[in-house]
Amino acid sequence: MEQREIMNLSEKLLIPTYKRYPIVLRKGRGVRVWDVEGKEYLDFLAGIAVNVLGHCPRKVVIAIQKQVQRLIHTSNLYYTEPQLSLAHILIKNSFADRVFFCNSGTEANEGALKLARLYMKKKFGKERFEFISTFNSFHGRTFGSLSITGQEKYHDGFEPLLSGVKFVPFNDPQAIYESITDKTCAVILEPIQAEGGINVPDKDYLKKVRRICNEAGILLILDEVQTGIGRTGKLFAYEHFGIEPDIMTLAKGLGGGIPIGAILTKEEISKAFAPKTHASTFGGNPVACASAVATLETILEDGYLLNHCERISKYFIKKLNSLKEKHSEKIKEIRGLGLLIGMELFIDGSDIVKKCLEKGLLIGTAGDGKVLRFTPPLIIEKEDIEEALKILNEVFNEAKS
Fold it and tell me: How much is the pTM?
């Protein structure tokens, strides 16, 4: 089928929940993808922080092929080896003692909310059901995760949402302290707000929040759906801040491109999830787990890729700041950590994204649409950055202030 025919048929057949760009992607290798007409694109969005090793990484592809030939699916009524291997790697390299597998970030957050409420009720014998979240946060699209998402544009039309949620400013530990009551169950935060605009907190923010939670006897849930799996130069973003959460959620980069999510927690808290309290038919699917194992093994192998992410991100941010100086009337600020980087603009970002696409560069927006989001694969090199900067410079030269 031709590109236009595919797009026209998709518009007729698919529920229109996405504003799609006018290209049909057919294949990808490394940091590049190609559309059905053969045009090449440099991918600095990576499936929105999903393809951490780039497109079709050899080790992941081989792991998927082998597992598909062996066993594609079986329910969680039985044990499987890939699930055990993945659990072992995650626990060995994190704060956690136990893990629950699901299929997406929003499912992971739904499960984390259930686990927190159930644990606190069993521990205190009374209702401790309130959650404290932050403005500009994003935790998913299902009702529970939507209810703790601090952006009204995502709530519109779906009210009433779940009760028992308070929102406070991000990067303000005092606001959290003042919002705690005898009904508070947990605080849920992204270590860095990604969808909200790539907002990086002060270095001591999470330490202060951790101390407040400890003193109040409440749980700290970290949503690392977008910040985890090497995205910030550490396997998990919480490692930058010198704390450990009680519960952590993962997805996006975990499967290297295959859908999978996870809830990680400590032994005592995990006991609240007894049989029949929570479940997932597809959670921990053998193919998804095999892909995730290969992804994590590649990232953790001799520490090279995490170190590379830290080094290359500093180079990228330095170059983006040079671009900011050149286009200071259009670019307001560069911020981020590792390869989760935002460029805040004085102008609308959607036009910049479209123009970049026309010139062969895939990026996205975050926040109010005035933040360009860069989440390239962790494997990018300086030559890729230079190519992206050349396109960005051309686009900003053409853009109106």
Answer: 0.97
